[in-house]
Design brief:
With 57 residues, this protein is an all-alpha fold. The protein has 2 helices and no strands. The longest helix is centred in the N-terminal third of the chain and has 25 residues.
C-alpha cells in the first residue's frame, strides 16, 4: 500500500514537471524543455529502479 501511495505522488510530480517542459517547448525554450523532460523521466524511473534492485531484507 505504501509503495502504491508513493508511486502516485511520484507520478504526480513527474506529470507536473513534464507539463512545465511542454510549456517551455511551446515558448521556444527547446533546450530547457529537453532538460525538464529528462528530469521528469528520471523522477519517474528512479523509484522503480530502487524497488527492482534492492536487496531483500
Amino acid at each position: 500500500m505504501v509503495r502504491a501511495a508513493t508511486m502516485v505522488v511520484v507520478l504526480m510530480v513527474a506529470i507536473y514537471t513534464a507539463s512545465y517542459g511542454l510549456w517551455a517547448w511551446r515558448k521556444g525554450n527547446k533546450r530547457g524543455a529537453i532538460g525538464t523532460f529528462l528530469l521528469a523521466w528520471l523522477t519517474l524511473i528512479s523509484p522503480i529502479l530502487v524497488w527492482l534492485f534492492q536487496e531483500p531484507s
